[in-house]
Description:
The structure holds two protein chains of two kinds. By secondary structure, chain A is mostly beta strands. Helices cover 0% and strands 48% of the residues of chain A. Helix content of chain B is 0%, strand content 47%. In chain B, strand 3 and strand 4 (45-50) form a beta hairpin. Chain B is globular, with a radius of gyration of 13 Å.
Amino acid sequence: xxxxxxxxxxxxxxxxxxxxxxxxxxxxxxxxxxxxxxxxxxxxxxxxxxxxxxxxxxxxxxxxxxxxxxxxxxxxxxxxxxxxxxxxxxxxxxxxxxxxxxxxxxxxxxxxxxxx
Amino acid sequence: xxxxxxxxxxxxxxxxxxxxxxxxxxxxxxxxxxxxxxxxxxxxxxxxxxxxxxxxxxxxxxxxxxxxxxxxxxxxxxxxxxxxxxxxxxxxxxxxxxxxxxxxxxxxxx
Lengths: 116, 110
């Protein structure tokens, strides 16, 4: 099945620890995105990558880092510098060429991070 | 990117049409209107998008006013599974970022 996987679904960490969230897609999409969602709020863009080995900051990048070494993978590290890391994190991907040349982003199931 | 305004919540009876409004008075000429929905604790799902003309697909219809300052998403026969938060977003088609506001929480009731 084609799609986006995020693991784990639930993640608990102690304050002060860095944690890396996984996002993998087998849709052959060039673009990938990370969003954060707080309770009762919409999604906010953290980082995005339009091509391998390149990425840009979104609206709330402080305290986060990413890498894009492979087309299929876009891991997000939540560092100890992120003041309020507890949130629901969503990864998405999008095709940027051919028939699917519009903003249809495909989302993963999300990872709920709780920092204790 | 243009900002959108949506009602915070709406109710709809099962089997009836759900009409979700969206205002986007500052939309620019080449920005599209997109609709996504998010069922509780899942990732958002694309529904439909349009530029000027009304659009219909297997999920919904999108009606855009002639001045493009507002639009309505129509779910023709709402079911309980349509209970979700619906986001109206305006964005450029290529390379545009999707900015999710708070959306409209639609509750479909039996």
